[in-house]
Amino acid sequence: MTDDHDNTPENGAFPPESLLPYERWLEDAYRGVMLSALEYVSREGLAGEHHFYLTFRTDFPGVEIPARLRAQYPHEMTIVLQHQFWDLKVDHAEDTVSVGLSFGGVGSILVIPVRAFTGFADPSIQLSLHFMAEEPDEADAPVAEQPGDAATGQEDSGTAESDGSSQVVSLDAFRKKGPSPA
Asked: CA-CA distance, 178 to 7, in Å (whole number)?
């Protein structure tokens, strides 16, 4: 099951402009599905072949990731939650998701504002949700870096090591290209 928000009629014409914020409501609902899945897994763990790809904007205010990952992925990054992750939490008060992952053998807690997510996928059931990239509010905090990370000096290739550590993958080749508005 996929959803790429393509509601274009068969004749290619775009629907008329709505006075009701349906697009915003749909975005909130899709993000709610992602948050429900993450909350469930934080309590129950991943079952069967389920695993998640989470794509987010690394340049979004409030994102807390190691400096070396921010340097390697200055705009967008995808993480995989499958075998080795810990402390997965959804914080509704702060509107964030946090999770512990290991990159290059170094454990880190990532903190990601919900509005920074641009994609959620569970490939085991062919579920793929894509969110509109939101522009941060001017009042939002600047992008945060985790202290002390730059001193590790370790190179991160963005792929899993043989010990089964977390993966960072590019999903650009798998994204559906829909019609662009004229």
From this structure: 10
